[in-house]
Automatic annotation (TrEMBL):
GO cellular component: cytoplasm; ribonuclease P complex
Alphabetical list of HAMAP family matching this protein: RNase_P_4
Protein name: Ribonuclease P protein component 4
EC code: 3.1.26.5
Span of the signal peptide: none
Pfam families: Rpr2
Cytoplasm is among the record's keywords: yes
BP GO terms, sorted: tRNA 5'-leader removal
Cofactor(s) this protein cannot do without: Zn(2+)
Assembly notes: Consists of a catalytic RNA component and at least 4-5 protein subunits.
Residues reported to bind Zn(2+): 66, 69, 92, 95
Length: 110
């Protein structure tokens, strides 16, 4: 096997980490209806991966995790989304706290 530059290796780790986070996110979505406690576990794993590999959690996944109590947020169940002056306001129904995310269309990165 050829030598891989350190930077490339780091990128690879982050690519794999992101893939794992998406997979766990899918599992969390699927399991939530019947096993909400499993969803919590998946959220924990997502956060662990993110911290261990210093990979940021993809925006879509992040907006589905309460940053105060780390609940997995399910629209129509335990979260409310509102649009407000360029922000998405996410209110967690468990801890009653709000999070704001700037609302803008994703631009293609060059
Ligand atoms: Zn919360």
């Amino acid at each position: 096997m050829s030598r891989i530059a350190r930077k490339q290796q780091k990128n690879l780790i982050q690519v794999i980490a992101t893939q794992r986070m998406w997979r766990l996110f899918e599992l969390a979505k699927r399991e939530h209806a019947e096993h909400p406690e499993r969803s919590e576990r998946y959220v924990q794993l997502i956060r662990n991966i993110s911290m261990r590999t210093r990979t940021s959690i993809p925006r879509e996944i992040k907006s589905r995790i309460c940053k105060h109590c780390y609940t997995f947020l399910v629209p129509g169940k335990n979260v409310r989304y509102r649009l407000k002056e360029g922000y998405i306001v996410v209110s967690c129904q468990r801890c009653r706290k709000e999070m704001r995310y700037p609302y803008k269309r994703l631009k293609n990165k060059g």
